[in-house]
Amino acid sequence: MRTGHFKDSYASLVALSDSRTAWVWTGLMALALLALPLLVGAYSLTLAVTILVAIVGAIGLNLLTGTTGLISLGQSGFLAIGAYTNGILLTDHGWPIWASLPAAGLVAAAISLLVGIPSLRLKGLYLAITTLAFSFIVNYLILFFEGVTHGSNGIFLGDVTIFGFDLSADRPLYYFTLAITVLVALGALNLGRTRIGRAWLAIRDHDIAARAMGIDLVRYKLLAFFMSSFFIGIAGALMSLQIRFINIDIFGFLLSIEALAIIILGGLGSVAGAILGTVFLTLLPEAIRLALSLIVDPNASTYSKYIYEIRGITYGVVMVLFLRFKPDGLIGLWRDAKKFFVNWPLAY
Q1: pTM of the shown model
Q2: DSSP classification of residue 348
């Protein structure tokens, strides 16, 4: 009896399925991810690290917007806070990466409370504009406090090591980022299965009804801001490790728009949807580039002159069509595919 109870508690803790098929697919995916650096070149590995960093940020935003229903356009501001905190602690104060990385998340989370408190009475577009204004304020403050943030000169990260591995090399950085991404995904999955996650869902569905049920809206909204910004700050720190040079121009408004597009296209309120949306939107420009190179001569003057415009238009058209015909996102498409293959023998 105790053994069964322990298994149930363990399965609930790690938020994994007890299905043998799910474990097999999880094992195969883990092997593929671990073997990836041995099978691909430097460019593909860099693209994989970019996807992993974006997944961490998308999971963080999904907690706030997808799970709690609070629309935010402040993603770029919290990414900047995480990146600059990590860079300053590493270069100016000599912190090890295992300390500076969580510190970057905690600083971003703490500052998010300054946004969350005055935004408690705001909803929808009003909250979105407030968070957008915050990201602009962050950019100006970084330029203003030049003595701390290095201003417009930016911060160059030197050699960063952990357990003797140089994170400036592609493979160690990939494995380090992969480990952090797995921890963040498992943490978000488990958080959604707790009382906190259920309270966030209730607030998203109907905040007045949630208050009538005894849910403290102030507490849980601030907690959503805190946890979301913590993960986004971690993503900003990982981004600083990848690009090695932090400048305010990197954290533009488009980062916030792309992050919102990722969680909408992937599926709001789903960790798996955030992962699928990130992979799809990150690889979409690469797929467009390969398709255009097969259709049009890459050496043609028209191709080189309008390549970015063509890719941008195709990128937008794909997103509009997908959202028009599959509004529940990629995770909905995945669920439909599973239902089809499960019921497939019954159709004959």
Answers
A1: 0.88
A2: -
